[in-house]
Design a protein that fits this description.
Blueprint: H1 24-29, H2 33-70, H3 72-75, E1 78-79, E2 82-83, H4 84-120
Antiparallel strand pairs: 1-2
Helix pairs in contact: 2-4
């Protein structure tokens, strides 16, 4: 066994045409099981994001009256001559909605870009 040589075994068909991959976009277009899994993952991600944004905004909007109820000293404060609860609920809450919407759109577009990268990966 001292004179044994190692030999590399290779296929004679090294120049054979490779089988084309089945693209994920085609899976989605043809509504196959794999395509449904891809779409469900995108929908689940977008739904989680929507639930998160809605929960944060509900906590903020629901927490304001609760904070004014629990901290009566806040009700006596005035902002530019307007009672603080009115100023917060009538004017300052809308920028929070706009910021929440902007963040939601930004994150949703990021999720879609990641999904497109996943599907179009070669």
């Amino acid at each position: 066994m001292t004179g044994a040589r190692r030999v590399a075994v290779t296929s004679p068909r090294t120049a054979a045409a490779r089988r084309r991959r089945y693209p994920a976009t085609r899976e989605i277009d043809e509504q196959t099981v794999v395509g449904e899994v891809y779409m469900r993952s995108l929908l689940r991600t977008q739904f989680r994001l929507a639930l998160f944004v809605c929960t944060v905004l509900a906590c903020v909007v629901g927490g304001l009256p609760l904070s004014f109820l629990l901290l009566p000293d806040l009700r006596g404060l005035h902002l530019l001559g307007v009672p603080l609860p009115w100023a917060v609920l009538a004017g300052l809450i809308y920028p929070a909605f706009v910021a929440g919407a902007w963040l939601y759109v930004r994150q949703a577009e990021r999720n879609e870009r990641h999904f497109a990268d996943l599907v179009e990966r070669k």
